[in-house]
Design goal:
The protein is of the alpha/beta class. Helices cover 47% and strands 10% of the residues. The longest helix has 18 residues, at 233-250.
Length: 321
């Protein structure tokens, strides 16, 4: 998903509090349905390898550490351009597929470094913004962070919402906040991080998803990766069903990004199956689905090496920055 995506952007809608307040989630039913996702289908052998290659193309390859430096961001961007070793690609028959990640995600201070490192690759840079991860800095400062990242070349902005607006039911404030962030993004796409693990109930997650989409979010995203509870299948089920309802109501497709705690190839397959079953194949493209990922790529590489050699490699054979 870049600013040049051919998919019509979500234009947003006027806030409809009647719709928002009518949303209810049956927690038990949602959890039961989510529990079936890993068990309903089994993907093996060459089909599993193909799905894992697909998962790589859907990654926001991410570094969000306090010790990030221009050097490790450059190494991350090199990995984004060439996520798999050439010998593995050759053994998989995938050398002509142009496998690369969906985006590189960094703090906004490091956007210029990432933009320069990815020049000519077509891989967009995403910046976390608006006081990430807590989102509690002054509002004018949060807006200025967006402006600075866009000026530096970020094509996607991952914003964090004020959780208190959800927890107190102040949907007007949440709508106004996300709408202002969307306007500040201009042509850059906005991914709204809901911090689902801090919203108390699945009903709050569903309502926050709907309000963010009405305010014009291009993507809704589970987590910053810094909360105690990050992406889960129940959270994801609730959010993708709101995306489905929103498309039916407005005609606009909104993307989805689970982030935080997705570390294994098996987990990535679970989320791909969720998207396929709930939203269909169109949501298996990078303009509508992303993984927030750092260590996930290493495990996928190890699984793919096992597929072609019959042996698991040590993780250091597939280093990340």
């Amino acid at each position: 998903m870049s600013a040049s995506s051919e998919l019509p952007r979500n234009a947003g809608q006027p806030l409809d509090l009647d719709v928002v307040r009518a949303i209810r989630v049956n927690k038990s039913a949602a959890e039961r349905r989510a529990a079936t996702i890993p068990t309903r289908r089994t993907v093996k052998k060459e089909w599993q390898a193909a799905w894992l290659l697909k998962a790589i193309t859907l990654m926001d390859l991410t570094t969000l550490s306090g010790d990030d430096t221009p050097g490790n961001v450059k190494r991350l961007c090199a990995k984004a351009r060439r996520p798999l070793r050439d010998d593995l690609l050759e053994r998989l028959g995938a050398t002509e597929l142009g496998i690369r990640v969906g985006a590189v995600c960094v703090y906004h201070q490091l956007v210029p470094t990432a933009v320069a490192a990815l020049e000519g690759s077509g891989i967009p840079v995403a910046a976390v913004s608006t006081g990430f991860p807590a989102g509690l800095s002054p509002f004018a400062q949060r807006l200025e962070e967006i402006h600075q990242s866009v000026r530096a070349g970020a094509q996607e902005i991952d914003i964090v919402i004020t959780r208190a607006h959800v927890l107190t039911g102040d949907w007007e404030a949440l709508y106004d906040e996300v709408k202002a962030f969307r306007e500040a993004c201009g042509d850059a796409h906005l991914k709204a991080i809901l911090a689902t693990g801090e919203l108390a109930t699945l009903t709050n997650v569903a309502r926050a998803s709907w309000v963010a989409m009405q305010a014009g979010a291009d993507f809704i995203k589970t987590s910053t990766g810094k909360e105690a509870t990050n992406a889960t299948l129940p959270f994801s089920l609730v959010m993708v069903r709101q995306i489905r309802e929103y498309e039916q109501a407005t005609g606009f497709k909104v993307g989805y990004k689970p982030a935080g705690g997705i570390r294994t190839a098996k987990q990535s397959l679970d989320y791909l199956l969720l998207m396929k079953e709930e939203l269909g194949d169109r949501w298996l493209q990078p303009d509508l689905f992303r993984f927030g990922a750092s260590s996930l790529l290493t495990d996928i590489e190890r699984q793919l090496e096992h597929f072609v050699t019959g042996r698991y490699a040590a993780a250091h054979r597939h280093p990340m920055p």
